[in-house]
Write a structure and sequence with these properties.
The protein is α/β, with parallel strands linked by helices. It contains 10 helices and 15 strands. The strands form 4 sheets. A 5-stranded mixed β-sheet has the order 2-3-5-4-6, sandwiched between helices.
Length: about 425
């Protein structure tokens, strides 16, 4: 179980470092385009998902920064019954169960949202309006989108949203017939920008990272920043297409007024005008000084810097190569503790012998042990000796070996000594 405990600590610590570096990088990139900042958050969230995989592929690099969790082993003589052994909670196992439960809840929420999206899509109607179809073809050609995009309409949604990778779908609210041509055009350009950028994939990736790090507030904050920069990047595409900033902001404001409730089931999709992101987006749209053009150089530099942080972290083993500890409890055949027992530990390579005596609770402990192989023996008056050979102790490990002693055999010898007195009867039978 210690391996699972160390895995959780490793994932949490390394993920925190990567996300912290991403927050620092976002401050340095505050004047860059939204597309570049979105790439930063996407790479950071992908890194926290890939760190456990990379840790198993890259060579080890020991850099002790975290304490090693203790390992409990069953000692010779059998396991100690739970009603006699000291009752201590298995904290590593409990922590792993809590983590797994939280991760499953987040993933279940995501899968439920995907299932509901499919159900909405099955009940939605295909948009047959020639004006919508012409605008869809024109916008797809402008953004150089080669895949066919389905255009659906449903009264179950309150705002435009997009999902799907191989067969992308743009789902529109039920009142689209009342929209003017200008609004139709900006909505299509914005949603098709999501398709071009494969933002549905990054949305699912962000939710998966939150599932793995659901206990870490940095993961949720990073996912939120990723969603904000994603929408701003698509807004930049609309403005680059020639739409005036004031006109586009007006269309967004009109659509946002209709959002009186949240649709949490749409976690697998990317929506156009979420209320929680709206104010910052309007400010960014109306700011003429913001950089909107994508920079390939900035994108490459962002990826290189984040990789320089993530790869060494993946190879790092944050467990201290300190001396080990061996401890345990000595019991008798009824599983009562045996105080005053002598425990002898012999380092096989160095030929060094260490001794310890059990206390009133039958416990013993050896500290500051170098890594190596040891012979272990327990001696107590009235009991048979018990021992083990080739006990491996790793650097920094904490092992426990309990002993259950059997009663020894009692031997008694009576010796009579004397002399035969001299006399005439000496030697007679």
């Amino acid at each position: 179980m210690s391996g699972g405990w160390e895995f959780l600590l490793d994932v949490a610590a390394k993920g925190t470092v990567v996300l912290g570096a991403a927050f620092l990088g976002s401050l340095l990139l505050r004047r860059a385009s939204a597309s570049t900042r979105h790439l930063l958050w996407t790479l950071a969230l992908a890194s926290v998902l890939l760190l456990p995989v990379l840790s198993g592929l890259l060579p080890d690099w020991e850099a002790p920064v975290l304490p090693r969790a203790p390992e409990v082993l069953a000692g010779p003589g059998g396991a100690v019954p739970l009603d006699r052994a000291p009752a201590t909670p298995n904290w590593p196992k409990l922590a792993a169960a809590v983590w797994a439960g939280g991760a499953l809840l987040i993933l279940a929420r995501l899968l439920l949202g995907m299932a509901r999206l499919r159900r909405v899509a099955r009940r939605a109607l295909s948009v047959e309006d020639p004006e919508w179809l012409d605008l869809l073809e024109e916008s797809s050609r402008r953004l150089k989108i080669v895949v066919a995009v389905r255009l659906l309409e449903s009264r179950e949604v309150a705002l435009p949203m997009t999902w799907g990778l191989r067969r992308p779908v743009v789902l529109l609210p039920g009142d689209v017939e009342q929209w003017p041509r200008e609004r139709r055009q900006v909505v299509l350009v914005h949603e098709l920008a999501h398709v071009k950028r494969r933002d549905c994939l990054t949305q699912i990736l962000a939710q998966a990272a939150c599932a793995l790090h659901w206990f870490n507030p940095l993961a949720w904050a990073a996912a939120r920043r990723c969603a904000i920069e994603r929408e701003r990047a698509c807004d930049d595409r609309v403005l680059e297409a020639g739409t005036r900033a004031s006109e586009y902001a007006g269309h967004l404001l009109d659509m946002a007024r209709l959002l009186h409730y949240r649709q949490d089931w749409a976690l697998a999709a990317v929506a156009m005008a979420r209320r929680s992101h709206f104010e910052g987006r309007l400010v960014a749209i109306l700011d003429p000084g913001l950089r909107r053009a994508r920079s390939r150089r900035a994108a490459v530099l962002t990826g290189v810097v984040l990789a320089a942080v993530a790869f060494p972290l993946a190879a790092m083993r944050p467990w201290p190569p300190t001396a080990g500890v061996l401890s345990g409890v000595v019991y008798d055949g009824t599983y009562a503790v045996v105080p005053g027992a002598q425990v002898v530990l012999t380092d096989r390579a160095r030929r060094v012998e260490r001794r310890a005596v059990t206390d009133g609770e039958g416990a013993y402990s050896f500290g500051a042990l170098p890594a190596g192989r040891y012979d272990w023996e327990v001696r107590a008056r009235g009991f048979m000796r018990l021992g083990g050979r080739d006990i491996v102790l790793d650097a920094g490990s904490a092992r426990r070996l309990d002993a259950v002693l059997r009663l020894g055999m009692v031997r008694e010898t009576i010796e009579v000594r004397g002399t035969i007195p001299p006399g005439p009867d000496r030697g007679r039978p």
